[in-house]
Amino acid sequence: MNARTSLTIVLAAGEGTRMRSSLPKVLHEVAGQSLLTHVLTAAPSGHGTALAVVVGPDRDDVAGAARRARPDARTFVQHDRLGTAHAVLAARDAIAQGADDLLVAFGDTPLISAMTFARLRAPLANGAALVVLGFRAVDPTGYGRLVTDGEQLVAIREQSEASAAEREITLCNAGVMAFDGTTALKVIEAIGNANSKNEFYLTDAVEIVRKMGLRASVIETDEDEVRGINTKAQLAQAEAIMQTRLREAALTAGVTLVAPETVYLAADTIFGKDVTIEPFVVLGPGVSIGDGAVIHAFSHIVQTKIGGQASVGPYARLRPGTSLGMGAKVGNFVEIKSAIIEDGAKVNHLTYIGDAHIGAKANIGAGTITCNYDGFDKHKTTIGAGAFIGSNSSLVAPVTIGAGAYIGSGSVITKDVADNALALERNQQTVRDDWGTRFRAAKARGRKPKTT
Ligand code: UD1
Ligand code: MG
Fold first, then answer.
1. Mapping DSSP to helix (H, G, I), strand (E, B) and coil, where does residue 331 land?
2. Ligand 1, from 19, 86, 106, 201: best to mutate by most atoms within 8 Å of Cβ?
3. Ligand nearest to the backbone CA of 158
4. Are 277 and 261 a contacting pair, CB within 8 Å?
5. Among 274, 295, 293, 273, which Cα is nearest to 284's?
6. Helical segments of 29-82, H only
7. Backbone angles phi, psi at 236, to 5 degrees
8. Which of 56, 167, 169, 195 makes an SS bond possible with 145, Cβ 3.0 to 4.6 Å?
């Protein structure tokens, strides 16, 4: 752990018009989490750390997302969009609290890691006044170029201000910076707006630090880690990079992914030991999978807790609020929402279970439907342990089926059923002997049977 205290300021103002979306840019998602949440999760946390997020005016949605991701975050509003240095100063109150290290990051670079934040802070402890995260860009167009002299960082030149020679530089500013807390505010306040865009550029901090006789340096990272998102194409590219990372992490942790490139994971997926995931599975946010569970092909799972040794799919859809107990089985073409399926219960075929509690070892037959919605409200179905629900039954909620009870196939159950009782709701079967023979004879009289 770093003994120095830190303040991280994440800049999240700006609409991101090139996304062509009504959703603010930083609330777009990668691996089931907003871009902003990714950055806030990677930012230093725990004892001795503070966090500030700068949002645009009337952006309660962004501020709310920030606080959900990091309840310790303070939010500040940048009323006029006058550049990155101006945005940092919107959080002046937080800076004035005086942390040892001041980190600045952008809310639209979701691939940044906690490790990189730690690496960036390290030179501060050795006397650097400013450390800038750099990367070698395949195409540096548009990025600020890092002008260096040996180990020293001399200046950051924005594309619009750079000379032809400076534009040849491929070492670029990733946008993440770490300032020594004792001089940070003085340096950032000294930044003027004497540039072609009349903005206050945070990047001018490098030259100011040098003029003050202090040291600025660079830490390099991979381009993939600092890709900023401005367009939907870049969003898709970040998703691909993140999925590759998550699959590698899952494999390293011992998860069996039969065809990793076909499985989509979320940033917060939790795996137990000896989990197997077959091809073409999509895991949304909030999924945990217990030891030895198997997720068969083509299943789609969101906000669900899966117990150890459970089996899901193929073709299962588990929606938010689902919890499967130990050894529970959910088979093909089954949809489950807001339901607890206790240990060893089976829901094997073509079924909808919503707003329900299913007891241990209950057996839910093919085609069972919990009728949970009356057009206005949702109602609950409770099924006791060991109950047996015959195929093609409709359970009209609110309704309770007792432990060990039986429901005859095809029943529409509207009243509670006692423990161990049989409930049957269907017409008596009528049988007419040899009816088929007589029917065919009557039809065939006077004409030939149609052949196909
Ligand atoms: C910035 C850097 C550039 C770097 C690049 C990396 C500056 C001046 N330039 O350029 O050196 O190579 O990022 O991607 O810092 N923002 C605000 N308020 C403002 C302006 C910006 O909150 O007034 C936020 C944006 O929402 C964004 C971030 O700051 O998250 C960066 O702003 P952006 O306009 O994208 O800067 P770039 O031109 O990409
Ligand atoms: Mg940018």
1. strand
2. 106
3. 1
4. no
5. 295
6. 35-42, 60-69
7. -65, -35
8. 169
Instruction: State the distance from the centre of ligand 1 to the C-alpha of 277, rounded, in angstroms.
Output: 40
How far is CA 391 from each of CA 104, 161, 209, 234, 395, rounded to the nearest angstrom?
60, 73, 75, 48, 11
Q: Read off φ and ψ for residue 347, nearest 5 degrees.
A: -130, 85
Q: Which residues contact 443 (CB under 8 A, 6 or more apart)?
A: none
Cα(116)–Cα(220) distance, integer angstroms = 9
Q: Which atom of ligand 1 is nearest to the CA of 16?
A: 26
Determine contact, residues 276/256, Cβ cutoff 8 Å.
yes
Cα distance between residue 226 and residue 243, in whole Å: 16
Of all atoms in ligand 1, which is nearest to the CA of residue 12?
A: 26
349 is catalytic: yes
Question: Could you tell me the two tokens for 266?
Answer: 């979320």
The single-letter code of the amino acid at 419 is D
Longest dimension (CA), the chain: 112
CA distance 119 to 201: 24
- Ligand 1, atom 3: closest residue by C-alpha: 144
Domain 7-226 falls under CATH 3.40.50.300: no
Q: 123-140: per-residue pLDDT in tens?
A: 999 999 999 999 999 999
The domain limits of the chain are: 7-226, 246-423
**246-423 falls under which CATH superfamily?**
Hexapeptide repeat proteins (2.160.10.10)
Query: In degrees rounded to 5, what are phi and psi of residue 332?
Result: -75, 145
Relative to beta strand 294-295, strand 412-413 is unpaired
For strand 145-149 and strand 152-157, is the pairing parallel, antiparallel, or unpaired? antiparallel
Under DSSP, the state recorded for 70 is -
Give the mean model confidence (pLDDT) for residues 233-250: 97
Residue 452, pLDDT score: 61
DSSP state of 18: G
Any residues with Cβ below 6 Å from ligand 1, and which? 11-14, 54, 78, 81-84, 86-87, 106-108, 143-144, 156, 158, 172-175, 201-203, 228
By the 10 Å C-beta count (0-12 exposed, 13-18 middle, 19+ buried), 254 is classed as exposed
Distances 9 to 40, 61, 95, 172 between C-alpha atoms, Å: 10, 18, 9, 21
Instruction: Say how many Å lie between the CA of residue 56 and the centre of ligand 1.
Output: 14
**pLDDT mean over 148-155:** 93
pLDDT by residue (tens digit) across 54-103? 999 999 999 999 999 999 999 999 999 999 999 999 999 999 999 999 99
Q: What's the rounded Cα separation, in Å, for the pair 154 and 152?
A: 6
Nearest protein Cα to ligand 1, atom 22: 13
Candidate of 38, 84, 156 to mutate for ligand 1, largest count of ligand atoms within 8 Å of Cβ: 84
